[in-house]
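4.2 Preliminary Data

To establish feasibility before requesting continued support, the project team ran the inverse folding procedure on a target of 378 residues. The structure was first converted into the token representation described in Section 3, and no sequence information of any kind was made available to the design step. The complete token record follows.
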């Protein structure tokens, strides 16, 4: 059986890389059994540089001129609020690449946490099932408010639904959808040691901020007060970008802080690093504050006290499942004051020992992943 990942998209998001590597490891797939679809030539080239062609077979739509031309036309229609044609084309492309007996994994993680985003994956599942291909919703979080009757009906096309945290698992169960709860596949991965800048020899507070978290002036005010506090305590501030896609580039959200603080803060050149190397850098931080879920997972899995800048159910769900206190998740889109992040950070400092004790259960939590292979392939 081959496993196809239409929502791999590419290494422009290191979380996508982490999911692909995690699935390959957990299911013990050889290169020819895993098919990774890249969203652009940039991502394809990046995946090659990071060695993902040794993990799976890389595919990009430009390999098929007809599909690529139609895809570009449909993207225009999508921007004109006519997504139907785009969804029809792309779902057909992914399903037609598969063969009866294959499995298509929808891995978007939080793809069902945004309005309207469920249409394409649900259509893929429907078409796959008709063709004798196993549709699997793998490692997802689910935002209840976006799960109307139409979306739920589409979810019933999946042969298997695997949720990654308890809140989403309960949501699925309450809707009458059978699901299995397992940790995100990226938890199974180990850091890869690599050279780091000299400042990592000191106490470093790693920060991952994204356009999704850095949404307004109140967040910026929070971040400024937080950075100034960290610097006043003699610690180093290091921004660690995790996504490099043009529309979502983490570096855009930190440019104003670099301009404001200059050489008082650092930016890790993580675009040249794999997900596993970035995880190594995060593991060397004293504390971590992260917006991207898979950057936060790197902190959790390497026992670094962490604040998740959560804006959806996934942050609260994952933090709760591993035993993190509620104050370690700060809703970056609904801040109440100018010191919300700083206040949470000070609590983390004050409760450092208890947080580290909570991490003593991490090995057992990660070991739960072992049952996934039998569930999916058995």
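Position-by-position output of the design step:
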């Amino acid at each position: 059986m081959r496993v196809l990942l239409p929502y791999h998209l590419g290494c422009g998001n290191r979380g996508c890389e982490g999911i692909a590597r995690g699935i390959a490891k957990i299911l013990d797939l050889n290169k020819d059994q895993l098919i990774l679809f890249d969203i652009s030539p940039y991502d394809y080239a990046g995946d090659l540089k990071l060695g993902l062609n040794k993990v799976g077979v890389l595919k990009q739509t430009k390999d098929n001129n007809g599909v690529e031309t139609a895809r570009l036309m449909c993207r225009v229609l999508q921007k004109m609020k006519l997504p139907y044609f785009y969804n029809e084309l792309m779902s057909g492309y992914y399903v037609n690449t598969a063969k009866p007996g294959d499995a298509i994994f929808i891995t978007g993680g939080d793809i069902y946490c945004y309005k309207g985003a469920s249409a394409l994956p649900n259509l893929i599942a429907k078409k796959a099932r008709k063709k004798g291909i196993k549709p699997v919703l793998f490692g997802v979080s689910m935002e209840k408010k976006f799960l109307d009757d139409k979306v739920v009906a589409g979810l019933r096309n999946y042969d298997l639904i695997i949720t990654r945290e308890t809140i989403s698992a309960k949501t699925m169960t309450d809707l009458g959808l059978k699901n299995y709860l397992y940790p995100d596949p990226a938890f199974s991965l180990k850091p890869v040691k690599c050279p780091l800048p000299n400042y990592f020899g000191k106490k470093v507070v790693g920060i991952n901020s994204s356009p999704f978290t850095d949404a307004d002036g109140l967040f910026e005010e929070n971040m400024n007060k937080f950075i100034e506090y960290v610097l006043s305590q003699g610690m180093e501030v290091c921004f660690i970008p995790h996504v490099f896609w043009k529309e979502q580039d983490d570096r855009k959200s930190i440019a104003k802080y670099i301009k404001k603080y200059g050489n008082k803060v650092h930016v890790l050149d993580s675009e040249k690093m794999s997900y596993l190397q970035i995880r190594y850098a995060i593991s060397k931080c004293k504390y971590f504050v992260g917006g991207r879920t898979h950057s936060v997972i790197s902190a959790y899995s390497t026992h670094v006290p962490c604040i998740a800048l959560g804006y959806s159910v996934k942050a609260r769900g994952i933090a709760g499942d591993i035993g993190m206190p509620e104050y370690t998740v700060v809703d970056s889109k609904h801040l109440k004051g100018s010191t919300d992040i700083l206040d949470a950070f000070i609590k983390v400092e004050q409760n450092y020992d208890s947080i580290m004790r909570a991490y003593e259960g991490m090995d057992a939590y990660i070991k739960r992943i072992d049952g996934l292979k039998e569930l999916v392939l058995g």
